[in-house]
């Protein structure tokens, strides 16, 4: 397959399997969730945010070219910031603050769903254990994130009176960071996946990553929409600051 052919296949995988199609995502953007369900989403997704720089640090440690390490380093800065109080993780905490969560509960991650934990850990392990090409390819879901983020942000602002531009501040920089990161990862993959077996591995890596994101939303759906909250996971009430609207 040519590089263009491979890119077209990758875009097809995203169209079919990315979480923009997940029922929980559709309910979130269409205003069909209650405050408790939106809280559960923010609480669980914190774990993804917190682990992204850890997976990127492990990926970066395997990049032998300083040029590529410099490129990848910006991802760590985007999430961790250059100083305390900055960066994506901190902005995600602004969202959980806005939803009334105590930071201690969020940052401890003790109340997240086991499904969230297993899915996110699987991503971190995949990036650590597979080839560098597969690790980089697994970040390519970001080709599709600006669109789903745009729909999610405008839907949430329209439908939920407990959500504001300020609490959703996490997503604004992602609209420029994600395309930049995805373009770099895509150019790496186009250049390095030449043989058929490499191209198959790249497509499988993207499918795996779509499954990670899908599984995170499945876990939320099962617990907080179907009502099967696993033992030990957030019960919908605890961990809120005194005076937060239930
Ligand atoms: O809101 C979203 O739908 C969404 C999706 C994804 C993604 O496609 O993996 C990421 C993000 N957000 C995100 O904010 C982010 O920092 C991020 C990093 C990565 C990655 O795989 O390295 N994906 C994503």
Automatic annotation (TrEMBL):
HAMAP family: PQQ_syn_PqqC. It catalyses: 6-(2-amino-2-carboxyethyl)-7,8-dioxo-1,2,3,4,7,8-hexahydroquinoline-2,4-dicarboxylate + 3 O2 = pyrroloquinoline quinone + 2 H2O2 + 2 H2O + H(+). Signal peptide: none annotated. Belongs to the PqqC family. Keywords: Oxidoreductase, PQQ biosynthesis. The gene is pqqC. This is Pyrroloquinoline-quinone synthase. Ring cyclization and eight-electron oxidation of 3a-(2-amino-2-carboxyethyl)-4,5-dioxo-4,5,6,7,8,9-hexahydroquinoline-7,9-dicarboxylic-acid to PQQ. Pfam families: TENA_THI-4 (PF03070). It comes from Kushneria phosphatilytica. The keyword Acetylation does not apply. GO terms for molecular function: pyrroloquinoline-quinone synthase activity. InterPro entries: Haem_Oase-like_multi-hlx, PqqC, PqqC-like, Thiaminase-2/PQQC. GO terms for biological process: pyrroloquinoline quinone biosynthetic process. Its EC number is 1.3.3.11. Pathway: Cofactor biosynthesis; pyrroloquinoline quinone biosynthesis.
